[in-house]
Amino acid sequence: MPVLTSNNVTLYYENQGEGKAIIFTHGASWNHKQWHPQVDYFSENYQTVVWDVRGHGQSSLPKGKVDSEDFSRDLIALLDHLNIEKAVLCGLSMGGHISLQTAIRYPDRVEALILIGTPFTNSFNWYEKIFVPVNRFSNRLIPMSAAGKIQAKMLSKFNPDNKDYIQEAFEMIDRNNWNRVWDAVTRMESGKDLEKVKCPTLLLQGDHDTMIMREQKAMMEKIKNAQLKIIKNAHHATNLDNPDEVNRVIQEFLTENDI
What we know:
Layout: E1 3-6, E2 9-16, E3 21-25, H1 36-42, E4 47-51, H2 69-81, E5 87-92, H3 94-105, E6 110-116, H4 126-139, H5 144-154, H6 162-171, H7 175-185, E7 201-206, H8 213-222, E8 226-231, H9 238-241, H10 243-256
Parallel strand pairs: 3-4, 3-5, 5-6, 6-7, 7-8
Antiparallel strand pairs: 1-2, 2-4
Helix pairs in contact: 1-10, 2-3, 5-6
């Protein structure tokens, strides 16, 4: 089992293919298996790396309060471990925000960004300022199995196969670990730093993903080199709902930027 031990954590990862590197980072409560459709496609011409963020999947989580800054530190540690000087970072939701913060904090290590259904703040407007604290509290009350079933049902309308995967990934996480991780994830903020992103950036949004629609448009305006593409027949599990279209649009972006 390929693992990296760094910063008091053991991180699981998988590395496949050769060429320029693309690092895929999954959404909150999920794991590296989210990216199988992309690994199968891009590993023919690129080095593809998937990993489990601390507290998810087969990666560990140290005791104590979770520092969201450790997410990007872990990603850089993974690049160092694999001797990757510079990579394309692709992430969905939490994974997109981790990729975004890595590009902000370590710009010399990031060749391009692909942000799918990605928030850059958890206080974008009054709705989020009310909803996020309520959501943190409710997460402490709802059993993991029930929460996993709710999320799986909501995000499997376009691809029924999502249901089993999402439930399985969610139920792999210890409830206490999940509460600690989610508390850190929902406090990640990058609004004041978006203009620091200089690399080419592709924003992807499922046409039915109302969770992050407003933030995607704001990011496109604030990130100089950003373009926004809408993926049809997709919700928040965008890369699983319509993998062929996601792969096609990502490939066009990479080709346009000679990557």
